[in-house]
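Write out the bound-state structure for NAP.
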Amino acid sequence: MSHTSHNQNSALGTAVITGASTGIGAVYADRLARRGYDLILIARNRQRLNVLAERITTDTGRNVEVIAADLGNTAELRAVEQVLRNDVSISLLVNNAGVGATAPLIDSDADKMDAMIALNITSLTRLTKAVAPGLIARRRGGIINISSIVAVAPELLNGVYGGSKAYVLAFTQSLYHELADKGIKVQAVLPGAIATEFWDIAGLPVSNLPSKMVMSAEHLVDAALAGYDQGELVTLPSLPDAADWAAADNARKALAPNLSHALPAKRFGLAA
Ligand code: NAP
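---
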């Protein structure tokens, strides 16, 4: 961990961004510093984090702290949780670190799938649990969770990846239910294809996708933050009409009165 600057503390507080060394997380770091947040940037690659932190401090004058940690490693994750729990300046958590895969499950390595779950699900859950009580106590702040369109289109890529991002969406919907009346903003962001190293790591370089469906990380983050400002719980940056998401979500909610009954539905033809 290292402090790269000692400017006056931000009135907006500190934004924690995981997976901040490159891609979407690095753009969040830039944009949130420009908005006036101090930053804690987390990823494994310390050198990349330091280069970014220095540039952001030069550009914006904000305080930027760097934590080099593997959030898929239990001990390192615990250490990060401890730091975040004790930092009363934290006002925003951006759970962005994540990995994907494009191969079908049967062609995938079980340990790699397990590692994906550890990063995409376990670390996101534990960091939220570490930060949320402080936000509630201070009655301010927000949690932004980076999901994916595969949360609602799990047929597109690897199913463990899709399932992990469906978890992020459902977890965020539940968090919203739990935290909205406590003064905490909650948002799930569902990006489509974004031009980052994600695709190289996932096994399909982004150049293989039609360019008309690939967005830049800058456009994605600017749209996601606009959605956050508008108080959106779920932001789909490519979707032209937000009413389409509302209709899908309302169809889900309309199931509620019939999800749990004493007897199976008549359509199964079972004797009462
Ligand atoms: P990226 O360019 O590959 O960046 C991923 C970031 O996560 C990097 O900063 C990486 O840094 C960090 N990271 C990876 N493994 C980590 C670990 N074990 N511990 C700590 N940090 C780790 O990918 P991206 O496209 O920006 O993806 C960011 C998020 O957006 C992910 O959750 C991804 O699922 C989601 N998303 C991406 C797309 C897309 O098309 N790109 C679409 C939908 C959703 P280090 O290597 O330095 O650790």
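---
The pocket of NAP is lined by residues 19-25, 43-45, 48, 70-72, 96-100, 119, 146, 148, 191, 193-194, 196-198, 201 (CB under 6 Å).
Strands lie at 2-3, 14-18, 38-43, 64-68, 90-95, 142-146, 185-189, 193-194, 214-215, 234-235.
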